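User: Sequence recovery, please. Input:
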C-alpha cells in the first residue's frame, strides 16, 4: 500500500525530447553513431587472424575457362590460397538450394561452381591472403585462358526472340487479361497517339560496396556481417548452398550503406567469403571493388510501346501498353511494368503485354520502384503527348480520366487521395499560371518549361514478428530482424513503440539486423513500416494489456474496477484518462510484480481476406520546372513539387528526406544515369563513378514535398503505407514533359542527354 501511494505521488520525469507521437519530425536515433563513425558496416568488423579475399573477375562474356595458372599468385608472400571451381569446397548441386527468398524463376548463378562463363565480369577465382594488399596484387597475377563463344547482349538486336515469362518471380503479377476491344477501339478513335519509349540500363551505386566478413568461431559457427537487405535471407542462402544447419550460421547487418534493391538477393561475395572460411577454417573478409559493383544485377534495359485513343473531350477510349525487357539466359527476371496502365486511368478498353529477351548478361535485379520507374514513365509521357493532340491542359486530361475504382478489376481503393495530390501540388507549384503553348517562356538564353506527371506504387504488407521487453528501469527494447538501409527503420520503429507506450524516445531501443531476431521480411517494396511497424505496434499493445492486468492487482489500485479503455499510457506511466493525475510509473508496476522485466511477443499476419477486396496503392503528383540551353542541350531542373499520398506518415522528417531522395534519383533517371555497353565485347564500359553519371549537388535545386493527409487502416493497423518508392515514380516523366513544353522537342528515351535534347 505504501509503495503504491509513493508511486502515485512521484512525478513522472519528462526526460529529454519529451513525448513523441506518430507524425512528428524526429531526427534519426542512429544519426550520432553514423556521423561519429561508431556505426560499423559489413567490411568494418574485425576478427582474430582475419584473412582477406580479392575476387578475380572474368574477362570474356560467354564461354568456358580452359585453364587457370595460379602459380605466380601463390608465390606472393602472405598468399594462403587461390580458390577456383577446381578446388572449392563442396557445394550443393540442385537449383533449389541456390534460390534465395526473392529469386525469380530459373537457375540462379552459382559462384565458382564450374568452368562456364555466363556474363562479363563473372567471378572466376578468389585470392586469399594475410593482408588485403597481398591479395590484391596476387589477384592481378592469376593467369586464366578461355574458350570463347558468340554472345548476345544487345536488346534492340534480338527483339524477335522475345518470350512471355514462364517462370514467375514470387510476388510478380502478370498483366491482366485484355479488357474490352482495345485494338479495334484505338483504330477507330477520333484522337490517337502512339509512341515507343526506350530506357537504358541503370546500375545501383550505393556508397557502401558489397562486402561480407565471415567470423569463424572455435566451434565452427559462422557469424557473418553482410551487406544485405535481409539478414535472414542471407542466412537462408548460406545454409542451403553449403548444407549448414541454420544454428551454425548467424548473419548480421546492423548498418547498411544504401541498397535500394541491390541487396535484396545475396551477391556473390557472400558465397565466396563463406567458401574461403570453410576451406581454410579461418575468418575471411571479401569486399567488391566499384568496378565489380557493375558485374551483377541492374535495372533492366526496356523498350515500350504505348497507344492511347480518346474522344475530343479527352475521355480515354483505349489504352494499349506493351513492354519488352531483358533478362539473363538462366533466369526469367520479371517486373510489373505495364500493369500500372490498367490501374491509373478510367478506361473501358485496355490491353497490356509484357515479354522478355534473354541476353548474355547477369540477371537484372530490383532497383528503386522496379517496373514502375519505367512503366509509369512511358504512360505519363504518352498522356502528355495526348494532351497536346487534344489541345488540353495535361492536368485537366488526368482529372478528366480520374479512376474512382480500379479500372481493371473494378475494386475500390483502400484509400486514394490522388485528386488532393493534384490540387495541392498544382497550387503549391502555381500550375494555373502555365501557358499552354510550347516555347512560350524564356529567360536569357534558357527556355523554360513546366511539366507534370502522376506517380503510383503498391501499398504492400507482409508477415512479421516482433518481441518487446520492458525493464524495471523504464527502458523498452523492441526487436525484429528488420533492416535499415538508410531509410530510417530504427527511428520509425522507436517512434511507433514510444507512441504506443507513452514513453520518451530515448527510453526506447529497437534491435534489428540480426538473423536470430524475430522473423521480418526483406526490406523492399516500401513495405517495412506497414509490416514491421504493425508488428511493433501489436507487441506494444500486448505489453499494454499485460501491464494493465498487473496494475489492477496492485493493492488499492485505482485501476481495479477500470476497463482497459479507461486507461492510457503517457509520460512513462499508466494513468486513468478521466484522472490523469493518478499516474503509476511503468517501473513501479514491474517492481510490484517483482519480475524486473516484462516480455511479450507478437506475430503480425496481413488480413488477406479483407485486403484482397481493395486496390492498395500510394499515389503522387509531380510538377517540374526545367530550364534548357538549346545551344548546348543542357537541362536544369530548377523546381520540383512532389505531392504524396502514402497513408499516415510516421516520421515527417525522414519521410520528407525519402521523397527528396526519390526525386533526386528520378532526375538522375531523366538526365544522367545510363550504363553504356559495348556489345562487340558484351561488357559495360562506364563502370565507375567518374563515367557513370549520377546527380550531384549542382544538379539539384528546389524540391518541395507536400504530404496529403491519408490514413489507411486496410493496408496496415498503423494507417501507414510506405514512401520509399513513390518519391521516384513519375519524376522522369515530368522532366520529359517539361522539356517538351520548353523546346517543342519530345525525347522518348532516357536518359535525356544533351545530344537528344538538341536533336531536331
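Assistant: Recovered sequence (760 residues):
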Amino acid at each position: 500500500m505504501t509503495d503504491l501511494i509513493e508511486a502515485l505521488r512521484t512525478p513522472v520525469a519528462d526526460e529529454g525530447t519529451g513525448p513523441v507521437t506518430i507524425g512528428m519530425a524526429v531526427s534519426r536515433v542512429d544519426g550520432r553513431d553514423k556521423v561519429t563513425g561508431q556505426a560499423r558496416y559489413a567490411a568494418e568488423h574485425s576478427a582474430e587472424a582475419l584473412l582477406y579475399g580479392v575476387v578475380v573477375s572474368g574477362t570474356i562474356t560467354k564461354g568456358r575457362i580452359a585453364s587457370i595458372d595460379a602459380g605466380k599468385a601463390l608465390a606472393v608472400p602472405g598468399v594462403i590460397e587461390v580458390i577456383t571451381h577446381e578446388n572449392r569446397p563442396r557445394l550443393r548441386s540442385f537449383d533449389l538450394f541456390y534460390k534465395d527468398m526473392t529469386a525469380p524463376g530459373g537457375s540462379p548463378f552459382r559462384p565458382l561452381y564450374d568452368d562456364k562463363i555466363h556474363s562479363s565480369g563473372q567471378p572466376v577465382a578468389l585470392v586469399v591472403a594475410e593482408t588485403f594488399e597481398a591479395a590484391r596484387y596476387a589477384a592481378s597475377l592469376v593467369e586464366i585462358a578461355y574458350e570463347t563463344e558468340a554472345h548476345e547482349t544487345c536488346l534492340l538486336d534480338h527483339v524477335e526472340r522475345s518470350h512471355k515469362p514462364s517462370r514467375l518471380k514470387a510476388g510478380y503479377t502478370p498483366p491482366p487479361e485484355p479488357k474490352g476491344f482495345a485494338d479495334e477501339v484505338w483504330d477507330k478513335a477520333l484522337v490517337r497517339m502512339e509512341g515507343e519509349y526506350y530506357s537504358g540500363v541503370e546500375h545501383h551505386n550505393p556508397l557502401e560496396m558489397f562486402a561480407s566478413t565471415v567470423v569463424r568461431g572455435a566451434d565452427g559457427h559462422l557469424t557473418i556481417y553482410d551487406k544485405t537487405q535481409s539478414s535472414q535471407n542471407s542466412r537462408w542462402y548460406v545454409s542451403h548452398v553449403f548444407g549448414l544447419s541454420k544454428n551454425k550460421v548467424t548473419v548480421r547487418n546492423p548498418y547498411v550503406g544504401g541498397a535500394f534493391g541491390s541487396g535484396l538477393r545475396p551477391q556473390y561475395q557472400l558465397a565466396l567469403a563463406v567458401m574461403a572460411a570453410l576451406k581454410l577454417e579461418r575468418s575471411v573478409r571479401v569486399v567488391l571493388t566499384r568496378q565489380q559493383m557493375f558485374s551483377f544485377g541492374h535495372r533492366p534495359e526496356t523498350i515500350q510501346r504505348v497507344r492511347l485513343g480518346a474522344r475530343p473531350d479527352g475521355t480515354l477510349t483505349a489504352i494499349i501498353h506493351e513492354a519488352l525487357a531483358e533478362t539473363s539466359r538462366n533466369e526469367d527476371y520479371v517486373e510489373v511494368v505495364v500493369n500500372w496502365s490498367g490501374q491509373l486511368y478510367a478506361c473501358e478498353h485496355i490491353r497490356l503485354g509484357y515479354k522478355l529477351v534473354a541476353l548474355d548478361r547477369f540477371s537484372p535485379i530490383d532497383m528503386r520502384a522496379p517496373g514502375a520507374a519505367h512503366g509509369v514513365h512511358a504512360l505519363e509521357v504518352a498522356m502528355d503527348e495526348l494532351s497536346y493532340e487534344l489541345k488540353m491542359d495535361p492536368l485537366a486530361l488526368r482529372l478528366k480520366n480520374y479512376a474512382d475504382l480500379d479500372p481493371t478489376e473494378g475494386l475500390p481503393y483502400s484509400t486514394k487521395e490522388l485528386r488532393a495530390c493534384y490540387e495541392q501540388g498544382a497550387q503549391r507549384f502555381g500550375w494555373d499560371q502555365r501557358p499552354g503553348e510550347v516555347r512560350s517562356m524564356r529567360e536569357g538564353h534558357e527556355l523554360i518549361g513546366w511539366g507534370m506527371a502522376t506517380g503510383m506504387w503498391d501499398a504492400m504488407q507482409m508477415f512479421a514478428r516482433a518481441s518487446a521487453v520492458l525493464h524495471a528501469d523504464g527502458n523498452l527494447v523492441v526487436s525484429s530482424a528488420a533492416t535499415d538501409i538508410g531509410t530510417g527503420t530504427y527511428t520509425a520503429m522507436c517512434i511507433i513503440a514510444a507512441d504506443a507506450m507513452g514513453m520518451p524516445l530515448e527510453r526506447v531501443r529497437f534491435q534489428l539486423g540480426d538473423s536470430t531476431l524475430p522473423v521480418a521480411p526483406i526490406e523492399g517494396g516500401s513495405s517495412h513500416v506497414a509490416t514491421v511497424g504493425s508488428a511493433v505496434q501489436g507487441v506494444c499493445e500486448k505489453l499494454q494489456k499485460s501491464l494493465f492486468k498487473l496494475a489492477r492487482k496492485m493493492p488499492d489500485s485505482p485501476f481495479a474496477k477500470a476497463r482497459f479503455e479507461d486507461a492510457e499510457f503517457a509520460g512513462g506511466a499508466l494513468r486513468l484518462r478521466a484522472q490523469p493525475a493518478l499516474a503509476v510509473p511503468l517501473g513501479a508496476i514491474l517492481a510490484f510484480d517483482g519480475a524486473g522485466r516484462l516480455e511479450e511477443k507478437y506475430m503480425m499476419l496481413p488480413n488477406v481476406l479483407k485486403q484482397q477486396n481493395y486496390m492498395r496503392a500510394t499515389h503522387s503528383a509531380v510538377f517540374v520546372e526545367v530550364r534548357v540551353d538549346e545551344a548546348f542541350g543542357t537541362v536544369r531542373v530548377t523546381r520540383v513539387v512532389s505531392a504524396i499520398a502514402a497513408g499516415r506518415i510516421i516520421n515527417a522528417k525522414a519521410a520528407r528526406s525519402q521523397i527528396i531522395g526519390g526525386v533526386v534519383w528520378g532526375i538522375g533517371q531523366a538526365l544522367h544515369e545510363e550504363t553504356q555497353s559495348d556489345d562487340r565485347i558484351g561488357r559495360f564500359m562506364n563502370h565507375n563513378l567518374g563515367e557513370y553519371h549520377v546527380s550531384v549537388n549542382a544538379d539539384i535545386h528546389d524540391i518541395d514535398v507536400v504530404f496529403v493527409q491519408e490514413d489507411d487502416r486496410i493496408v496496415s493497423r498503423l494507417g501507414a503505407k510506405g514512401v520509399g518508392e513513390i518519391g521516384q515514380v513519375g519524376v522522369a516523366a515530368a522532366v520529359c514533359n517539361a522539356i517538351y513544353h520548353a523546346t517543342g522537342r519530345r525525347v522518348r528515351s532516357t536518359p535525356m542527354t544533351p545530344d537528344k535534347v538538341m536533336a531536331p
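The domain at 51-150+206-294 is CATH 3.90.1170.50 (Aldehyde Oxidoreductase; domain 3).
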